[in-house]
């Protein structure tokens, strides 16, 4: 099914199913309520043929104006972080089972504004391996590996430079950039993705 052609109800069902699959794959319980009650009542009113108007701007306080209402089926940031942490734990276990040694996890260069977070820093023999863990509920939009943009690659490279400067000053060990991608719970380990 093409998500762009789906009705709002079918799109919502697709998002809910994708969320349930991601939670199952990560081994965590699905949150009980992800949709705010105001959205549920508005959605049910419009489904019953009632009005589905937004409140007038004059009826909102200044703090409410411009406030973002989460999309139906959206995952709260805390839930998203828990899901990401669970996938990182699975990726680390997989890499350690393959013989890599963990040097750092969730490392961030606070002193460098262009650097991002490195999910895992591993050692494979003498090679330092910078690992990005990506997870997607399905491969409909290209999958987990395709979600790594050019900007993300640039931040990843800058972060690796910052990690080497902080943890191995003066040394220049061989380095590699790997991706551990989870598509609908299936793990793919892509080695040396920035080579070339």
From TrEMBL:
Domain of life assignment: Bacteria
UniProt-annotated stretches for the region Disordered: 32-74
Biased composition (Low complexity): 32-54, 65-74
SUPFAM superfamilies associated with the record: Restriction endonuclease-like (SSF52980)
InterPro entries linked to this entry: Restrct_endonuc-II-like, tRNA_endonuc-like_dom_sf, UPF0102_YraN-like
Pfam families according to UniProt: UPF0102 (PF02021)
Listed NCBIfam families: PRK12497.1-3 (NF009150), YraN family protein (TIGR00252)
Homology family: Belongs to the UPF0102 family.
Protein name per UniProt: UPF0102 protein
Organism (species): Derxia gummosa DSM 723
Lineage: Bacteria, Pseudomonadati, Pseudomonadota, Betaproteobacteria, Burkholderiales
């Amino acid at each position: 099914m093409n998500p762009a052609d789906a009705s709002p109800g079918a799109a919502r069902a697709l998002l809910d199913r994708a969320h349930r699959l991601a939670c199952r794959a990560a081994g965590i319980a699905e949150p009980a309520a992800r949709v705010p009650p105001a959205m549920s009542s508005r959605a049910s009113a419009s489904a019953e043929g009632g009005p589905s108007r937004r409140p007038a701007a004059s009826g909102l306080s200044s703090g409410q104006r411009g406030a973002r209402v989460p999309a139906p089926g959206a995952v709260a940031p805390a839930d998203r972080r828990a899901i990401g942490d669970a996938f990182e734990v699975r990726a680390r276990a997989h890499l350690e089972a393959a013989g890599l040694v963990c040097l750092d996890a969730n490392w961030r260069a606070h002193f460098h504004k262009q650097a991002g977070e490195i999910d895992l820093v591993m050692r494979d023999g003498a090679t330092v391996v910078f690992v990005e863990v990506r997870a997607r509920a399905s491969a409909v939009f290209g999958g987990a590996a395709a979600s790594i943009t050019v900007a993300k690659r640039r931040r990843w490279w800058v972060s690796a430079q910052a990690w080497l400067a902080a943890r191995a000053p003066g040394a220049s060990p061989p380095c590699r950039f790997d991706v551990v991608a989870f598509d609908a719970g299936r793990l793919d380990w892509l080695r040396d993705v920035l080579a070339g």
